[in-house]
Amino acid sequence: MKKEISICNITAKPGQKAQGFINILDTETKMPITIINGQKEGKTVLITAGVHGCEYPGIRTAIELAKEINPQDISGNIIIVHVVNTAGFEKRRAAIMPEDNKNILRVFPGDENGTISDKIAHVITNELISKVDYYFDIHGGDLHEELIPHLYYPAKADEEVVNKCIEIAKHFNVAYYAPSNNINGTFTSAAINKNIPSLLIERGGCGLCKEEEVNLYKDDILNILSVLNVIKYERCSKEFSPKEIKKAIYLDAREDGCWTCFVKSGQEIKKGEKLGEISDYFGNIIDTYYAEFDSTVLYNTVAYSVSKGSSLVAYGRS
User: Fold this and answer.
1) Measuring CA to CA, which of 229, 254, 305, 314 is 20 to 30 A from 284?
2) 317 by DSSP, 3-state: which?
3) Quick check: bond before 71 cis, omega within 30?
4) Which residues have C-beta within 8 Å of that of residue 272, sequence separation ≥ 6?
5) Where are the beta strands (DSSP E) in 103-148?
6) Higher pLDDT, 235 or 167
7) Using 50, 70 and 90 to split pLDDT, how confident is the model at 237?
8) Which DSSP string corresponds to 230-281?
9) Could you tell me the end-to-end alpha-carbon distance of the chain, in angstroms, rounded to an integer?
10) Mean pLDDT across the chain, nearest whole number?
11) CA–CA distance, 54 with 209 (Å, rounded to integer)
């Protein structure tokens, strides 16, 4: 007989959907979550959105899927966190958790004795990721970014897990999938420490929440749930063949200043092409950035203001 699922203070019996907020340890921070417990046995899938509070397409996708999916239609279980970084969402703070100025994406698997970002990561790792078979962290660009739809798989995980991630990646309606060598991200930590196939998907940007992008996101997620035999679904979008990025450059600002970008996401660029430049408050150019090889722009910063260490442009080739 299929079992009920309990996460913190929320329980869903077979054939039921349960929603509410889970507390982050000893803090006042809470995360909205939906548990969908199917009637039949099957895989358990975790979906998180809003790790960055201003990446709206992923957040809206999570909210709508949580509302629309009927537990009677699924085999297995789906756990959806609508917004991980609720404070960032409410305060419109790009990329970081306002309380500690940390990027939650970079502190996994977390620390129950750390700051709020560390504690959030700890709860996700131990209360959510530990209970699932697959994990998808959905993003959406940010207030200062534009991007071409793409995703990342955890390159540092065991070979078997990496291969599963790549096979799943090929079912997404994105232009590219790329390896991530990071080890303390949401999806990379899950794959490396828990051997759970996990992906991070990017769609959207510039603080926009376009219905078209949300619908494409929902189509992607429902399709991958179908691939995993969790739900029956016939995808809306046409056939596609995402390409693997073999080599990529992620440019960060070497100086504070005023950023002018000369390329756009999805643009094909040539070796030596000027990507952008940083000037001071008097309009004097203090740094310039050029492409190291022929490639495609994956994402770029559209904000005029940049700080040292912040992202500027990412580009790669297959």
Assistant:
1) 314
2) strand
3) no
4) 290, 291
5) 134-139, 145-147
6) 167
7) low
8) SB----SS----PEEPSEEEEEE-SS-EEEEE---TT-EE-TT-EEEEEE-T
9) 47
10) 96
11) 10
